[in-house]
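[Automated response] Your request has been received and processed.

Submitted sequence:
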Amino acid sequence: MKLTKFIISVFILLIFITSGCSDSLKTGENAANEAGHLVQITKKQFVSDSMKIGAPTLQYFEDEIRCNGYIIAPANGMAQISAPLSGIVETINCSIGDYVRKGQILCSLSGNELMLLQQDFAETSAKLERLKSDYDRSKSLFNEKIGTEKDFIAIESDYKAMKSKYQSLKIRLELLKLNVSKIEAGELYSAFAVISPISGYITNLNLVLGQFTEQQKNLVEIIDVSQLQLQLSVFENDINKLKTGQNIGFNSLGEPASVHSAVLASIGKTINPESKTIQCLAKIKNENGDNYIYRSYIEARIIVNHKEAKALPNDAIIKGGKDFYVFVVEKYDNQVYDLRQEKITIGQVSKNFTEIIGGEDLTQVLIKGVYNLPVE
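Generated structure:
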């Protein structure tokens, strides 16, 4: 009986000892796992692989909306010029691509319509002068109770009608930049000039010498490049992020590496049912408008938010499966670096830097030459 109790006691003790050893082993394994993967490299390898040690720095990160659009001109930044009268093209003083100033002569036209207008004005001027004399005399007689009211009203009516016609013809001639005093004196013009209403570059020219042009026909298109702006198409799900005044970076397809700046000026109120986008306008910042081409396609990035955050160079971070890691210098002794593989949580990526979330102990990190190190 005593022997049996002794054997049972020994068996129970062995169970406790075995259990304690198992717990100790598990604790050791967890500690080893928590310590991270260690890699040793020599000073020689460090130099040959151009490795570098650093720490997280504050970097500027931006949230952006990517969109496409075109460079356009506002309504007062372009002119489509037609002739105020029909006529035949006598001279052409410009060509596509030329820069013209406001008031510069683009071409000249002649024709019967011009001659008839001047003739009508000269005749109307002469008639008005005669009617004014009759009106003044009739008014004087009527005031002296000599003339009848009926005669005075008839003359007054003819005078006012002729005066209105005279003013109308005079305005039409002045729009042609013709001297009406000379026309009244009998000096008629054989042609009239078409004048540029704005300064800018000629983007379209529809003129041929000897061609007959109607009043409604567009002859010249001029764009003022100093007023060019962006027309952007922003998707419906990004509209709520937009605010006027947000900065924009954009580039044309022909200059992918050259980034220009603009500011969001207005946000549309109508969504295109087919593309599910809204039209927005952006004002190009003070730059030389000669760098831009009217109606050219552009790619833009609207900066909707920005912040400063701790970050490491992209070269310092390696990926293992779905996780991201860096190597931290555990110690340096006898020309040997002990590097600890450390799992990290990343945020935004911008301009060769990656945001690090947390990571307060990342004071000595291998920020260059990581690509040759194994990840476990």
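Summary generated for your ticket: The CA atoms of residues 89 and 209 lie 5 Å apart. Residues 1-35 have pLDDT under 50 and may be disordered.
If you did not submit this request, please reply to this message.
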